[in-house]
Amino acid sequence: MLYLHISDIHFKRKEVGTPDDPNQALRNDMIEDVKHMREKIGRAADGILISGDIAYHGVEEEYNFAYDWLEKKLCPVAGCKIQDVFVVPGNHDIDRSKEAGPAQVAARNSLRTIDAREVDKVVREWLSLCADALLFIIQCYLSVCLAPAGPRNGSNNQKKPQ
Predict the structure, then answer these.
(1) Three-state SS at 138
(2) How far apart are CA 153 and CA 155, in angstroms?
(3) 159, pLDDT greater than 60
(4) φ and ψ at residue 48, rounded to 5 degrees
């Protein structure tokens, strides 16, 4: 098996697609490097592994741009399909603006009052209580990042995962 492994591609919503995108040259170089390596090896990649930080701020526009770049540029030169892209989220793949709510503030404040030896137990209890909410977040992430190939219209009319 032959996989292309990339990480920390950090698509940043205020930069991607603009004339002064500071990472455009890096993405172009990556495309050229993959073309060159594919010619040298003499075969297509079986897939692409992305280990974290697709986005910079974890917002939909960044994932949409990344998806289009992967589907239209990187996958074709690597010789694989978008369905052959495997992703592990990183710390930048989180919309940190969602952490400012009262529940998150209360949770952080509460954890600061707990003996360090008890934190793991308390967090496990919280997670068992909010497993459905966490599953929903993961399903939303996957629906944006790993959606089946097809036209993307950039709208936010996706059905919520069941």
Answers:
(1) helix
(2) 5
(3) no
(4) -125, 130
User: Which residues are CB-neighbours of 91 under 8 A, at least 6 positions away?
Assistant: 52, 53
The C-alpha torsion from 12 through 14 and 19 to 21, rounded to 10°, is: -30
* HSE toward the beta carbon, residue 32, CA cutoff 13 A: 6
Half-sphere exposure for 11 (CA within 13 Å, toward CB): 23
Three-state DSSP at 156 gives coil
Beta strand residue intervals within the chain, DSSP E? 3-6, 47-51, 85-88
Tokens of 69: 């770049």
3-class SS of residue 45: coil
Distance CA 110, CA 119 (A): 10
* pLDDT band for position 134 (cuts 50, 70, 90): low
Q: Helix, strand, coil shares of the chain as percentages rounded to 5? A: 50, 10, 40
What residues form DSSP beta bridges with 4? 48
33 backbone φψ class: left, alpha, beta (φ>0; ψ -120 to 50): alpha
10 SS3 class: coil
